[in-house]
């Protein structure tokens, strides 16, 4: 704050102590030079006139001036660095840039000749310099005064001509000590005009040299205005013999702009001004002319060069480079896809040809077998009966072996790539005992109503862990041939055993070695979910279990809690209070311990629309299958899913989005299911997978799911009123009534039998599921002869199974006993409670309380730690990061049009701001950079919102399945660094070359890269934490507000503290510093004054960049925390 107070005290345009030190150095420099010259007898006019214009004399004077400045600069370097290091970083360099007259010191010799050797007696001493600049601190005027306080030489009683602006006097015969900072010498004799190259302040009778880049000629009187041009002072009235002198002031460009070398000219010395030649340009305060670049037009006396053509060429080159990168990347991906498609087609053709050859060989073998049997019958007549019988038995045994297992076409169970290797062992007739898995599955099929716990360990520890056949395959052709060969064998097996059950598969696999999936059984007892804060039951007293190897359907009318039930099983029910018990394989364990082998298919088709069908499936397989699984096996899994879901024809088609049409809705639904099937789950939960599908698509999907169930997968799905043929494909049914009460839970084939026992029979030509749901909805009225109402059905089921009836439902039991069908529900208390809270304040409080509870549940679920019991080692974070990079990279390539629009908008912003916001030398272009910070921040934030705002649902689904959140976040951020590097180039290609500031392109680019990195992190936080609409509003509002705070010149400490935390303040400071460093010489006072007023420091350039980068890192950490904490489950 002390810096701002000093700036206000000296009227915001100079610093007294800076000027004091500057002038002390100048005076001492000239003192040493002249004193040395006097010692050599060069100023002795009594004995003769010294030739000051001789080259030898000028060289000696220049050498003396340079040495004296260097010596006295080292004396005051510590003071300058300590007090004014904010505007002078390199004292030696800045001093040489302002006061090194060694190259052209003609004005010194001219002044020595004009003053007849008393130059030393006309230069200001340290005391006079201190008095001159300290007078600005004591003035109370709000404007800069053009005179000083009365002093020893200029006062009310003594005002000689040397006191006038542009004039100076000599000390006469008195000796002058220029280093004396206390006493001001008497200097009132031999007054004359100030020498050219010097300035003489008003109210002092001494001279101070002008800095390099200044033009200080003798003034000439403009008789029409009475002003001594090119300066601003006028002649004093009453002095007819007084004439114009020299320069009278040197400060910042606003108060002493006439001293600066004008634009369009350059000043090699402070007394010489030359016009810029054609092909060159000269900025204000230039000491030399700068050659214009090629392809630019620079006429004579040009103030600047027009380099807009370079901007156009730069942007054109950048566009061509980006197009080449895009086309090359697209060509590489397309070539790779074509190669894979060709390998796939060859594999399919090879497998089909092999299958056809095997069929022909099998037919020929059957014919030969028939002939062999005929020959056997003929030969048997010629042999003895004993020998004939023995030979017949041997042949019969061989025939059965051949019929049972064909060596060239072995019947293998599903998902058994290594099964063919064990056929030889099986053909020998060695029988193994039934495994525990087979026994358990048989018991399930024989007694599906058993309530015993399903106690199976994950994985079969007795299975030998031989490397599968796919591990030995390396090329794509081999992998595809292997995968399609297995698929064809599985198809043949399905044709041979159309009605094969899960136990049948296990039994068939008992003689061969297969890779079995771990099994999961979920049992639930008195499962009840109550909405927090509202005391509303979503699910009540649900008891039962879903079994591996079976497909269970959950049905019921709207509001029955079907989705809630599945969410509770999957551990995704938040905002609810859950009571009851859920057992996993007969043990009380968290469902999150098995999330790596649990698949959950949401009702909405959450699929990446800018990826193809195969790319979506492959990404899920890479990240969720076991990391140890060979690639050939992964190819088999993906190809099997594509084949079973009927997606072969659209495998290379984009899924599509709302804006861009892709595959059909039914195909999209199947892809949604396929994302979970490719990870080979043990428990697969689906929420209305057949909604929006026609009958054929539904049956295709359900056949694929039944095939998964044959491998031991526990499948449970919500379904709405299926057709009868589709309904018969389910194994078990959970029928829920409104309020989440169970009406039936058991095998589908026993559903009608149970309702018939209640007196409810399905009419002819009526679909049973439709009829039962209509009853639960109250649409179909039951006849009074049945003695049952639809509200009694949940209680009937509880009594049928011996489950306890809730207290509030005992009235229904009493009514049933009294043959009274009226409902006496616990409505009064609940309705009263609801009516009591219907006021606005009550509803608002309930909503707030519910929201807080929901957020609390989300945080607990997201940070809940549980042991991994899935026995599956998925890829590491780094491996998943690589997979994410590939996916996000493809998505960005397919969004090239959107990216091009972003670049075009930045380009237009650069043109507008570069043309309209011209660089101001007084503020070093801070206005244009202010607009730049706002524009770049706003546009880059808006575009960065798309990175996370559009993929929230996809992330929630993937993270719930165990995919790394860190890999997802880092991959998005890494790919977005392309924009971080390219967007500043696009903007600068127009802004810099149209605005043409003094700072370099590299400095501007580095600052913009750090700025874009900073605001991108802020945009991530908005995109993740807020909805799209509010996120966009905040992205627009925040840059404007923070920039206003950062540029506010209020003296409030609170505002200054807030401004120090605003990224626009640091970005603006970095821009101004990069520009201010290019101003030297005559600009030194302007630079210090401007930096002091803004509170900037030349030494803070790297600090500004570091703050921007740290802000970006901090907000990325906040965004990641929001992403893993406030996500929906």
Automatic annotation (TrEMBL):
Gene Ontology cellular-component annotations: membrane
**What positions does the domain ABC transporter occupy?**
522-764
Q: Where is this protein primarily located?
A: membrane
Q: How does it sit in the membrane?
A: Multi-pass membrane protein
Q: Which GO terms describe its molecular function?
A: ABC-type transporter activity; ATP binding; ATP hydrolysis activity
InterPro entries for this protein = AAA+_ATPase (IPR003593), ABC_transporter-like_ATP-bd (IPR003439), ABC_transporter-like_CS (IPR017871), ABCG_dom (IPR043926), ABCG_transporters (IPR050352), P-loop_NTPase (IPR027417)
Q: Where is this region: Disordered?
A: 384-435
Q: Transmembrane stretches, by residue range?
A: 12-32, 307-329, 899-917, 929-949, 1005-1026, 1100-1126
Q: Which keywords has UniProt assigned to this entry? A: ATP-binding, Membrane, Nucleotide-binding, Transmembrane, Transmembrane helix, Transport
Subcellular locations according to the entry = Membrane
| Family (UniProt) | Belongs to the ABC transporter superfamily. ABCG family. Eye pigment precursor importer (TC 3.A.1.204) subfamily.
Q: What is this protein called?
A: ABC transporter domain-containing protein
Source organism of this protein record: Quercus lobata (Valley oak)
């Amino acid at each position: 704050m002390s810096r701002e107070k000093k700036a206000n005290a000296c009227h915001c345009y100079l610093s007294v102590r800076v000027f004091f030190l500057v002038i002390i150095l100048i005076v001492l420099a000239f003192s040493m030079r002249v004193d040395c010259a006097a010692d050599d007898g060069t100023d002795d006019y009594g004995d003769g006139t010294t030739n000051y214009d001789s080259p030898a004399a000028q060289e000696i004077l220049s050498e003396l001036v340079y040495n004296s400045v260097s010596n006295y600069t080292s004396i005051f370097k510590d003071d300058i660095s300590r007090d004014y290091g904010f505007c002078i970083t390199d004292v030696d360099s800045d001093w040489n840039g302002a006061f090194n007259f060694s190259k052209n010191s003609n004005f010194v010799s001219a002044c020595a000749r004009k003053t007849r050797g008393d130059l030393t007696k006309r230069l200001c001493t340290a005391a006079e310099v201190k008095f001159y600049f300290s007078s600005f601190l004591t003035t109370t005027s709000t404007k800069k005064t053009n005179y000083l306080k009365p002093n020893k030489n200029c006062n009310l009683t003594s005002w000689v001509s040397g006191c006038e602006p542009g004039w100076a006097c000599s000390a006469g015969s008195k000796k002058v000590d220029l280093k004396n900072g206390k006493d001001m010498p008497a200097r009132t004799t031999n007054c004359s005009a100030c020498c050219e190259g010097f300035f003489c302040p008003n109210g002092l009778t001494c001279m101070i040299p002008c800095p390099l880049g200044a033009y200080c000629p003798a003034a000439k009187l403009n008789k029409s205005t009475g002003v001594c041009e090119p300066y601003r002072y006028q002649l004093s009235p009453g002095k007819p013999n007084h004439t114009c002198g020299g320069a009278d002031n040197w400060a910042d460009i606003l108060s002493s702009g006439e001293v600066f070398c004008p634009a369009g000219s350059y000043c090699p010395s402070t007394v010489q001004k030359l016009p810029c030649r054609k092909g060159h340009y000269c900025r204000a305060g230039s000491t030399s002319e700068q050659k214009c670049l090629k392809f630019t037009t620079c006429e004579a006396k040009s103030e600047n060069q027009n380099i807009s053509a370079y901007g156009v060429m730069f942007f054109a080159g950048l566009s061509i480079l980006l197009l080449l990168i895009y086309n090359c990347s697209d060509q590489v991906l397309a070539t790779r896809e074509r190669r894979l498609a060709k390998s796939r087609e060859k594999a399919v053709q090879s497998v089909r040809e092999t299958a056809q050859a095997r069929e022909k060989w099998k037919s020929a073998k059957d014919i030969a077998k028939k002939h062999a049997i005929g020959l056997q019958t003929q030969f048997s007549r010629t042999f003895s009966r004993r020998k004939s019988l023995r030979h017949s038995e041997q042949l019969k045994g061989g025939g059965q072996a051949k019929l049972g297992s064909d060596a060239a076409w072995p019947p293998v169970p599903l998902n058994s790539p290594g099964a063919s290797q064990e056929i030889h062992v099986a053909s020998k007739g060695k029988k193994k005992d039934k495994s525990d898995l087979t026994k358990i599955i048989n018991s399930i099929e024989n007694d599906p109503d058993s309530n015993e716990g399903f106690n199976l360990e994950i994985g079969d520890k007795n299975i030998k862990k031989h490397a599968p056949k796919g591990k030995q395959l390396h090329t794509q052709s081999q992998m595809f041939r292997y995968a399609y060969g297995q698929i064809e064998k599985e198809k043949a097996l399905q044709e041979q055993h159309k009605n094969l059950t899960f136990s049948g598969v296990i039994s068939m696999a008992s003689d061969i070695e297969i890779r079995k999936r771990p099994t999961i059984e979920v049992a639930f007892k008195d499962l009840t979910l109550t909405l927090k804060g509202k005391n509303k039951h979503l699910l009540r007293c649900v008891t039962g279990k879903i079994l591996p190897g079976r497909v269970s359907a959950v049905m019921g009318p709207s509001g029955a809690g079907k989705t809630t039930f599945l969410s509770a099983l999957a551990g995704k029910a938040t905002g609810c209070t859950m009571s009851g018990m859920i057992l996993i394989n007969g043990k009380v364990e968290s469902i999150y311990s098995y999330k790596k082998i649990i698949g959950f298919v949401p009702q909405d088709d959450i699929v990446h629309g800018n990826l193809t069908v195969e790319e979506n499936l492959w990404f899920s397989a890479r990240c969720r299958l076991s990391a140890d699984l060979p690639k050939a096996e992964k190819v088999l899994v993906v190809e099997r899913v594509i084949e079973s879901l009927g997606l072969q024809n659209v495998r290379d088609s984009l899924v599509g989005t709302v804006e861009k049409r892709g595959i059909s809705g039914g195909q999209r639904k199947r892809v949604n299911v396929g994302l979970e099937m490719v990870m080979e789950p043990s428990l697969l939960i689906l929420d209305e997978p057949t909604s929006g599908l026609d009958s054929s698509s539904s049956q295709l999907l359900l056949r694929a799911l039944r095939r998964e169930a044959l491998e031991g997968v526990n499948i449970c799905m919500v379904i709405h009123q299926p057709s009868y043929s589709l309904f018969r494909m389910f194994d078990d049914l959970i029928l829920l009534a409104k309020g989440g009460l169970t009406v039936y839970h058991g095998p589908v084939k026993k559903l009608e039998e149970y309702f018939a026992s209640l007196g409810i029979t399905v009419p002819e030509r009526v679909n049973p599921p439709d009829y039962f749901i209509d009853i639960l909805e109250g649409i179909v009225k039951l006849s009074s002869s049945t003695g049952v109402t639809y509200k009694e059905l949940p209680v009937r089921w509880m009594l049928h199974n011996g489950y306890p009836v809730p207290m509030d439902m005992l009235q229904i039991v009493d009514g049933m006993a009294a043959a009274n069908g009226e409902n006496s529900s616990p409505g009064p208390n609940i309705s009263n409670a609801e009516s009591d809270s219907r006021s606005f304040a009550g509803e608002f409080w309930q909503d707030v309380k519910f929201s807080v509870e929901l957020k609390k549940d989300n945080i607990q679920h997201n940070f809940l730690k549980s042991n991994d019991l899935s026995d599956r080692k998925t890829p590491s974070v780094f491996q998943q990061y690589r997979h994410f990079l590939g996916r996000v990279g493809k998505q960005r390539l397919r969004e090239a049009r959107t990216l091009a629009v972003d670049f075009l908008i930045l380009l237009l912003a650069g043109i507008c701001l570069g043309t309209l916001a011209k660089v101001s030398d007084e503020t070093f272009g801070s206005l244009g950079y202010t607009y730049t910070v706002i524009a770049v921040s706003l546009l880059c934030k808006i575009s960065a919102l798309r990175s996370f705002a559009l993929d929230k649902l996809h992330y929630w689904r993937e993270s719930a399945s165990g995919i790394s959140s860190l890999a997802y976040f880092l991959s998005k951020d890494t790919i977005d660094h392309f924009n971080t590097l390219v967007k500043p180039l696009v903007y600068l290609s127009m802004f810099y070359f149209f605005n043409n500031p003094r700072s370099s392109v590299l400095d501007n680019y580095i600052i913009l890269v750090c700025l874009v990195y900073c605001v991108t992190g802020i945009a991530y936080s908005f995109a993740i934490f807020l909805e799209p609409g509010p996120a966009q509003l905040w992205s627009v509002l925040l840059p404007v507000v923070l920039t206003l705070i950062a540029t506010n010149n209020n003296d409030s400490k609170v505002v200054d503290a807030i401004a120090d935390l605003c990224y626009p303040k640091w970005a603006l400071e970095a821009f101004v510093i990069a520009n201010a460093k290019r101003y030297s010489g005559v600009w030194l006072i302007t630079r210090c004054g401007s930096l002091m007023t803004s509170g900037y420091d030349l030494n803070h350039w790297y600090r500004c960049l570091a703050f921007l980068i740290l802000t970006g890192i901090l907000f990325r950490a906040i965004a990641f925390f929001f992403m893993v904490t406030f996500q929906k489950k």
